């Protein structure tokens, strides 16, 4: 889920590949779906935010821009954000936290390189 090209990578390992029944490609979430997911399930990720605050709106936009609809990446990003917020004893959800979490992820710096 969320790994483009997984089928091609698995094909290199014939014994393992023969045990896979099917591969289903999940399409990226739309911006509307991402906003709904953030609004309804952010607490499940351990993040709480007020959607009426400008900082929270900017942070949501940053999450959507960085993850580009990839749910798996969003889950990793939120876990890293929660870690940063806990270590720094920060309760407010803002774009600086999103950026710091992105920078900590292995794929974080490569995402913007391939955007647009």
Largest sheet: none
The helix count comes to 7
Mean pLDDT: 76
Low-confidence stretches: 108-116
Write the layout of secondary structure elements.
Elements: H1 6-11, H2 14-17, H3 31-41, H4 54-67, H5 71-87, H6 95-104, H7 108-114
How would you describe this protein?
The protein is mainly alpha-helical. The protein has a single domain, classed as Helicase, Ruva Protein, domain 3 (Orthogonal Bundle), CATH 1.10.8.60. The chain has seven helices and no strands. It has helices at 6-11, 14-17, 31-41, 54-67, 71-87, 95-104, 108-114. The longest helix is centred in the last third of the chain and has 17 residues, at 71-87. The relative contact order is 0.13. Residues 108-116 have low confidence and may be disordered.
Short description:
The chain has 116 residues and is mostly helical. The protein has helices at residues 6-11, 14-17, 31-41, 54-67, 71-87, 95-104, 108-114. Helices cover 59% and strands 0% of the residues.
Notable characteristics:
Helicase, Ruva Protein, domain 3; 59% helix; disordered C terminus
């Amino acid at each position: 889920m969320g790994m483009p090209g997984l089928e091609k990578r698995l094909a290199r390992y014939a014994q393992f590949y023969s045990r896979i029944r099917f591969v289903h490609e999940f399409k990226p979430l739309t911006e509307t779906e991402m906003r709904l997911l953030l609004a309804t399930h952010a607490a499940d990720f351990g993040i709480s935010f007020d959607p009426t605050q400008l900082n929270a709106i900017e942070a949501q936009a940053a999450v959507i821009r960085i993850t580009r609809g990839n749910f798996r990446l969003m889950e990793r990003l939120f876990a890293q954000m929660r870690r940063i917020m806990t270590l720094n004893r920060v309760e407010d959800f803002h774009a600086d936290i999103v950026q710091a979490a992105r920078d900590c992820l292995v794929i974080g710096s490569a995402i913007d390189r391939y955007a647009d």
